[in-house]
Design a protein that fits this description.
Layout (H helix, E strand, L loop, with lengths): L6 H7 L1 H14 L6 H14 L3 E5 L2 H11 L7 E4 L6 H8 L3 E4 L22 E4 L11 H11 L2 E5 L7 E2 L2 E2 L6 E5 L13 E5 L2 H11 L21 H11 L2 H19 L14 E2 L5 E4 L3 H10 L29 H9 E4 L7 H17 L1
Parallel strand pairs: 2-3, 2-4, 4-5, 5-8
Antiparallel strand pairs: 1-9, 6-7, 6-10, 8-9, 11-12
Helix pairs in contact: 2-8, 3-8, 4-5, 4-7, 9-12
The chain binds pyridoxal-5'-phosphate.
Pyridoxal-5'-phosphate binds next to helix 4 and helix 5.
């Protein structure tokens, strides 16, 4: 049995530090907006090389609050891709915006920068590139377009803690960056949590207001209506411990990627992940591509190997987005990818023997298909 991610193995490796951090929050019973949160925000901002980091309740809220802090309002168009988790597009709608899709690049699975400009209209106000699977989107052309058309850029870095674009940490390149700390992420909490990072003081102040009921400084004074979306101190204390290990874990993920690539290089009909020249990929997911994907997945499952599909139904074909009027064939690169991609087990503690076992099984199954 090889799980898709192994949160228990990770916890066992840092148990003492984690237990101590949790106990210390329990001892001082400061659960909301306390010292641990302030420290974590400073440490995460420093990790991303941004001036500000504002902890929020989850990655989805990070996107909603970032969009609202960037001034997105009813009817504004926001460009993103149909090959992402629905949280990205939900956030656009929840902030009042209209989702506009652009297809992905077939090699990196991130937004195809050559197809953005044709979708920009007078109503376009922002672009959300997704650093999918841990690989940064091609940010430079995106930033050039944003400058030309006066658009905000909101990086969805939910899957890419520590990834770099031309030596810069993701989250620090656009106007604002959004991270999720959902437990299985490269940096995961023990529950829900998220954060917004930015170098823009105005955006940082607005997100701070929005996350805590529009409260200024006094308890029952509210500048605007906001949300109840704070990152609690227990999660912050856990994340502070885990942040200290993140570089080491990302290094292991990159090592595991190399091992998989090496072993899969002589397996016919399997395409291994592509790392762009500009990128330092952090392999939140290790995604291969093959034509007999469903059969391979089924057989691996029967042998105890857990896999995933990220994502099986493109967003433009989801019932939730029927109202946008897109049809099958509108985004062919996304549609083809959704039929062929398969995420293999990937986590820092995955070892060579496990990777060898997975690849051996893939070889045997492939030979029999
Ligand atoms: C690309 C992407 N964006 C946004 C989110 C939303 O994060 P959360 O689950 O913390 O709300 C996720 C997490 O699952 C994600 O993968």
């Amino acid at each position: 049995m090889i799980p898709f991610v192994d949160l228990k193995a990770q916890y066992d490796s840092i148990k003492e530090e984690i237990d101590e951090a949790i106990q210390s929050v329990l001892n001082n019973t400061s659960f909301i907006m306390g010292e641990e949160l302030i420290k974590f925000e400073e440490e995460f901002a420093s990790f991303c090389n941004t001036k500000y980091a504002i902890g929020v309740a989850n990655g989805s809220d990070a996107l909603i609050l970032a969009l609202r802090a960037c001034g997105i309002r009813e009817g504004d168009e926001v460009i993103t891709v149909p090959h992402t988790f629905i949280a990205t597009t939900e956030a656009i709608s929840n902030a009042g915006g209209k989702v506009v899709f652009v297809d992905i690049d077939p090699k990196t699975y991130t937004i195809d920068v050559s197809k953005i400009e044709e979708k920009i209209t007078e109503k376009t106000k922002a672009i959300i590139p997704i650093h999918l699977y841990g690989q940064p989107a091609d940010m430079l052309p995106i930033m050039r377009l944003a400058k030309k058309y006066n658009l905000k850029v909101i990086e969805d870095a939910a899957q890419a803690h520590g990834a770099e674009y031309k030596g810069k940490k993701v989250g620090s390149i656009g106007d604002v960056g959004c991270f999720s700390f959902y437990p299985g992420k490269n940096l995961g909490a023990y529950g829900d949590a998220g954060i917004v990072v930015t170098n823009n003081e105005g955006i940082a102040e607005k997100v701070k207001l929005l996350r805590n009921h529009g409260r200024i400084t006094k308890k029952y004074e509210h500048d605007i209506e906001g949300y109840s979306s704070r990152l609690d101190n227990l999660q912050a204390a856990i994340l502070r411990v885990k942040l200290r290990h993140l570089n080491k874990w990302n290094k292991s993920r990159r090592r595991n990627d190399k091992k998989y690539n090496e072993l899969l290089s002589n397996v016919d009909g399997v395409i291994t992940p592509y790392e762009a020249d500009y990128a330092k990929h952090v392999y939140h997911l290790y995604v291969i591509r093959t034509e007999e994907r469903d059969k391979l997945r089924e057989e691996l499952k029967s042998k105890g190997i857990a896999t995933g599909i990220h994502y099986p139904i493109p967003l433009h074909l989801q019932p939730a987005y029927k109202y946008l009027g897109y049809k099958k064939g509108n985004f062919p690169v996304t549609e083809k990818a959704s039929q062929e991609i398969l995420s293999l087990p990937m986590f820092a503690e995955l070892n060579d023997e496990q990777i060898e076992e997975i690849v051996e099984l893939i070889k045997i199954i492939k030979n029999n298909i």
